Amino acid sequence: MQSETRIATLECAGNGRVFLVPQVEGAQWELGAVGNAEWTGVPLSDLLDRAGMDEGAREIVLEGADRGTPREKPVPPGPIAFARSLPRDKAIQREVLIAYQMNGRDLTVDHGYPVRAIVPATMEWLRSNG
């Protein structure tokens, strides 16, 4: 499939964790868990077209390959995957990539190998979706 490359800024979900009250486990980031990279991959919209996305689909669920078991109750019977959903309107925007390279190199496990979703938020989209 045709790939595209773009630069995007990512912010870790744990950015600012040090300021949470009560404090939670994990790396105690202050405000430094943000970085820029050049991402290469296939637009999610192309993959959805190829898969034959149902016209009635409203959310696209992206599930990571990594697994873990929460320590808090209720504890599930086994490991669970990290998953996020995107509204269809966002998922089909050309800027959303399923990336397999970062800065010209194949992704490492620490950066989402074998692929990861890159979902830039444009100011226009943020204004219309809060």
Commentary on this structure:
This protein has 130 residues and is α+β, with helices and mostly antiparallel strands. The chain has helices at residues 44-51, 88-91, 123-129; strands at residues 4-11, 34-43, 59-68, 80-87, 97-102, 105-106, 116-118. The strands form two sheets. Strands 1, 2, 5, 6 and 7 form a five-stranded antiparallel sheet that branches. A two-stranded antiparallel sheet has the order 3-4. The longest helix has 8 residues, at 44-51. The radius of gyration is 16 Å and the shape is globular. 8% of the residues are buried.
What structural class should be given to the helix and strand makeup?
alpha+beta
Q: What is the H/E order?
A: EEHEEHEEEH
Oligomer: single chain
Silhouette: globular
User: What is the typical, i.e. mean, pLDDT?
Assistant: 87
Helical fraction: 10-25%
Give Rg in angstroms: 16 Å
**How much of the polypeptide forms β-strand, as a percent range?**
35-45%
Please outline the major beta sheet. Answer: 5 strands, antiparallel
The separation of the N and C termini measures 33 Å
| DSSP strand count | 7
Question: Segments where pLDDT lies below 50 for 5+ residues?
Answer: none
Summed up, the helix count is 3
Quick structural gist:
The protein has helices spanning 44-51, 88-91, 123-129; strands spanning 4-11, 34-43, 59-68, 80-87, 97-102, 105-106, 116-118. The protein is of the alpha+beta class and 130 residues long. Strands 1, 2, 5, 6 and 7 form a five-stranded antiparallel β-sheet that branches. It has a two-stranded antiparallel sheet with strand order 3-4.
